[in-house]
Amino acid sequence: MSNYPNMHDVDTVACVGTGTIGGGWAAYFLAMGYRVQAWDPSPDAAEKLGRLIDAAWPALTELGLAPHAAKDNWSVHAELADAVAGVGFIQESAPEDLELKRELLAKIDAAAAPGVVVGSSTSGYGMTEMATAAASPARLVVGHPFNPPYLIPLVEVAGGEGTDPAAVAWASKWYDFIGKSVITMDHEVPGFIANRLQEALWREALHMVDNGEATVEQIDLAITDGPGLRWPLQGPMLTFHLAGGQGGMAHMLDHFGPSLKSPWTRLDAPELTEELRGNVIAGCDEEAAGRSVDELIAQRDAGIIAVRRALADLPGGPA
Amino acid sequence: MSNYPNMHDVDTVACVGTGTIGGGWAAYFLAMGYRVQAWDPSPDAAEKLGRLIDAAWPALTELGLAPHAAKDNWSVHAELADAVAGVGFIQESAPEDLELKRELLAKIDAAAAPGVVVGSSTSGYGMTEMATAAASPARLVVGHPFNPPYLIPLVEVAGGEGTDPAAVAWASKWYDFIGKSVITMDHEVPGFIANRLQEALWREALHMVDNGEATVEQIDLAITDGPGLRWPLQGPMLTFHLAGGQGGMAHMLDHFGPSLKSPWTRLDAPELTEELRGNVIAGCDEEAAGRSVDELIAQRDAGIIAVRRALADLPGGPA
């Protein structure tokens, strides 16, 4: 087992692939005060990356830069080996092509110093299938961000079969250390968690358009002016916990359980077994962490007001 | 065909059913300056409604009250006929029970003056099936709000087979007039639009819990700290329009179309026909309304920053 870096000593990171996602990562690392060494096969990579960082910088400045953050503290290297030399962490953000990812991760692994963890931005592949060509898959971890990576906190972390659990733990701590919101997954689920949920909604939306049941604009308005206003505050589970009134999720499942089978989406419902019922209720209780339904409602309402006021103050109003 | 009221002359409305949703409507109408006459079979309806209005009033005050809004400008009536007497609009928010709704809507219709439109808060039934017992279904319309109705702007409006199209148009204008964000549907789709989308996501979440792929807390965090931060600004369609880079939705569909079939959710994907592709792209173009991808990205980023700052300023931070 390798020794992983002391993250307090890390001052330079590598971004391999500098498209929208990789470039977004680069901007974020710069804002957090790191030096960024980048590699990308595109001939105009430096120019594109510069534009991307320029575009992201005002937003990052507004959210707060680290003390020594410098917008120009980056370099694009012609050789991958030069980009990963001397860095304390590597973020891979190549296009979503399995063969390409396999080869690239093997090359990164071959070039990087031992113990340096590599996080892949893949939006759906598991590390088990991506690490097949790498000599030392132990340090290869999925670290899936959301667009734009410089503004959305979520990173989903998962290892593959060959990944060292200590590397998964290091990556989770590292992303947390640099200010991200981390979900560490036990399983390799295709699409991880957020993309699975997004994708279910997206497919239902496509079906509605396909059947002439709703237009694209109606679908977006239904979310932005409806449940979307709650979701930055309370996720879908806690939302339904509150929909159950004082009885919470237990009342919700017992009351609306039967209508789970009603044809409100094309997605089949799972059987609402005692076990599933129990797990969902226990999860909500855990998440509520002692807050009563009334307290959660008060927090939700304060949050919705804050969000609506913030959006109303934007130039031109909500998008 | 009836003459519908001039909405500028409406000063009193009726709320039939004063649970969480009906009481939330009552609070909203009061804040908009209307007098509210309520009816509910519960013996402690007045007490409960008072508490609900008390709880909602600070939020409504913060969002801005109408000039003559008064928190105590309401009454609960023992007889349904008294509650609907002299009002310019009736919002029905009874429990989600088809037989109960049928009987209640027939009673409301029998008691209300001609031409007064009745909006039902049903979260899934179509008006065709709910209006079967009513003598004059022409003025019966679905007006589906989101919880809490005093904070979430969305109202989905749809008529049934027996509904006068002019009543549907009146209801849409009315909800818009009182500050709501209105979707007028051409079709009676079970669950309307937003609940269909929510439900797809909810079922996928239940499957994940059922299979041990994610915990309740991970599911909520995946939304609140991930795509949920974008959804108050840009719905799922516009989100994917931006995921396509400068090529927008067309690039997105052509590039990720094949992976539509990948098992990222249990929901089957529709066939991506030329027609569906065209409709989705055209819808995004219409919604973008001339804004370039760069402009949409700038608006999105400004919005996410505003939302994140607003949430960070809440006491206790995001829920």
From TrEMBL, chains A, B:
Pathway: Lipid metabolism; butanoate metabolism. The keyword Oxidoreductase applies. InterPro entries: 3-OHacyl-CoA_DH_NAD-bd, 3HC_DH_C, 6-PGluconate_DH-like_C_sf, 6PGD_dom2, NAD(P)-bd_dom_sf. It comes from the Bacteria. Belongs to the 3-hydroxyacyl-CoA dehydrogenase family. It comes from Arthrobacter livingstonensis. Pfam families: 3HCDH, 3HCDH_N. Residues 12-185 form the 3-hydroxyacyl-CoA dehydrogenase NAD binding domain. SUPFAM superfamilies: 6-phosphogluconate dehydrogenase C-terminal domain-like, NAD(P)-binding Rossmann-fold domains. This is L-carnitine dehydrogenase. Residues 191-259 form the 3-hydroxyacyl-CoA dehydrogenase C-terminal domain. Keywords: Oxidoreductase.
